[in-house]
Amino acid sequence: MRKKVTVVGAGHVGATLAQRIAEAELADVVLVDVVDGVPQGKGLDLLEAGPVLGYDSRITGSNGYDETAGSDIIVITAGLARKPGMSRDDLLAANGDIVKKVAQETGRRSPHAIMIVVTNPMDVMAFVAMKASGFKREKVVGMGGVLDSARFRAFIALELGVSVENTHAFVLGGHGDSMVPLPRYSTVAGIPITELMSADRISRLVERTRNGGAEIVALLKTGSAYYAPSAATLEMVEAMLLDKKKILPCSTWLEGEYGVKGAFAGVPVKLGTAGVLQVVEIKLRADEQAAFMKSVDAVRAGCEKFM
C-alpha cells in the first residue's frame, strides 16, 4: 500500500508539491482547499497526467477533511500569499486562524502523521500548528530553512560558476529578514566559501538570500514563490517517507539546544519516518550566536500573539 500525503492549500505551492510527489511516486496525495472545484479539478488534471508520465500515484481533491484520514504526512500550505511591500509577519493574524483550523482538523483525523508547515510566517505558524494539533515536537516541522539554504546555494553557484550539486549551505534562525546564513559552514566541494571569495562578495550573497522571497514577490507582482518552496518541501517529504535520515536545516521546537528553550527556529535536524529524529548542534561564534538569538526573539514576538 502506498503512503498517503495530505496537502492543504491547492494554490501554486500546494498544487506544484502534489505534482512533484506524484511524479516521484512517493505517495498518493489528497489535495484540500476551501474553494469549491479547485482541488478536485487540479487533482483530476494531475491524475490524467499519470499515463503520460508513467506514475500510478492517485491524486484526490476535496473541500473537506474526511478524505485526509490516515495520512502519513500533512503539509500545510494554506494561507494568504505575500504581496509587494508585505513582510512575512504582515500575514500573521489571518494565516494564524487558517493554520489553527487546518491543524486541528487534519491532526484529529491523522493523529500519527507528521506535520510540515509551509505557510508564512512559517516559524510562528509551526508553533500555531503544534499547539492546535497537540502533536509532539518531533511531529511538527517548518520548511523554511531548506528553502533559504537552496537559495543561498543557487546564488553561490551563480557567483562562482560551479554546479549547484557542489554547493552546500547552512541558514539558521527564523524564516524571515533576521535569518542567519553561515558562510563558514557553506562549502563548494567541501571548500568553505570564505576561502573562495571576498567578504564583500559573501555579504552580497547573504543579503540576497535574506531577501530571496521578497525579490520574487516584487518581480511577480501578483504572487509569491512556489517552484523552489515546493521543491524544498518535497525534499523533506522524501526524507521522511523513505526514512533517509537526511540532515536538513528545518524549523523545529527547541528545548535547550543552541541555548534556546521553548521556541521554533531553523537548525540542522535529522529527518526520518518518525519526524525529527535529532537536532544537530554545531558550534557558533559569539557573533553568530547573537544573530541567531535575535532571530529567535523575532519569532517569539510573533508567537506571543497565539499564547
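the 2nd protein, sequnce then structure:
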Amino acid sequence: MRRKVTVVGAGMTGGTMAQILAGTGYIDTVLFDIIEGLPQGKALDISESAPLVGTSSSITGSNDWKDTANSEVVIVTSGVPRKPGMTREDLIKTNAGIVESVTKSVVEHSPDAILVIFANPMDAMCHVTLQTTKLPRERIIGQGGMLDSTRYRTFIAWETGASVQDVHAVVLGGHTEATMVPIVSTATVGGVPLTSMLPRERIEAVVQRTKNGGAEIVALLKTGSAFYAPAHAAVQMVEAILLDQNRVLPCCIYAQGEYGIRDAFVGLPIKISRSGIVQVYEPPLADGEVAAIRQAGDAVRELAALV
C-alpha cells in the first residue's frame, strides 16, 4: 500500500515537489491549490510522465480539502513568493493569514499528519502553525535549515574543488539573511576540517554567499524564487519520515531549552522518523556560533510577534 502525502500550493515549488514525490513509486500525492485548474493541470502533466519514469504512483490535483484526507505528511508551500528587493520579513502579514487558514484545514482532514512548513518567512510561519493547530512540536518541522545547508555544502564544494558528496556542513539558527548561522567549526570535507583547507577570508566569502543564497537566485530570476533545491530538500525530509530512516537533519523546530533558547522556532540538528522529531541535538560549537543561534531565536520571537 502506497503512502499519502499532500503538497499545499501548486506553484513552481509545490509542483516540483509533487513531481519528485510521484517519481518515488511508493507515494500517492495530492497537489492542492485554491486556483481552479492549476493543480489539476500540473497533476495531469506529471501523470502523463509515468510511463517514462516507470512509476505507478498516483497524483491528484484538487481544490477540495476532502481529497487530502488522511495524509501522513503535508507540505505547506502556500503564500506569496519573494520578489526582487523583498525580504522574507516583508511577507509575514500576508502569508500568516494564508498559513493559518491552510493549517486549520490540514488538521481538520488529516489530524495525525506531520507538517513540513516551507511558506515564508518560514520561522514565523512555523509559529503561526503551532498557534493555529496546537500540535506537539514533534509534528511541526520547518524546512529552512535543509535548504540553507545544501547551499552551504554546494559553495564549499565549489571553493575546495571537492565532491559535494564529501562535504558535511550545516546551517543552523534562522532562515533569513540576518539570522542564519552557517556552522564553520564542525564543517568538514571528507573528514578534513574546513578551517584547514581554506583561509579565513575564503571561508567568510562562502558563509556570506550562503546567507545571501536565496536573494541571489531571486535577483537572477526576477519573477520568482528558488524551487528546485527547496523541493529536493523537502522531499528528503518526507522520505525520512515515511521510511522511518532516523535521519539527523538540520531543520527548524520549536526550541524548548536547547542552547538556552525557549519558545522560538530555530534551526537545530534533529533526528527524524515516522513519528516526526524524535530527538534534538546540541553539538559542541564555537562560542560565537552558539551566541548567533541564540540571537536568531530572539529575532524569530520578535518576528512572530508581528503576526
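The chain has two domains: 3-144, 145-304. The chain has a mean pLDDT of 95.
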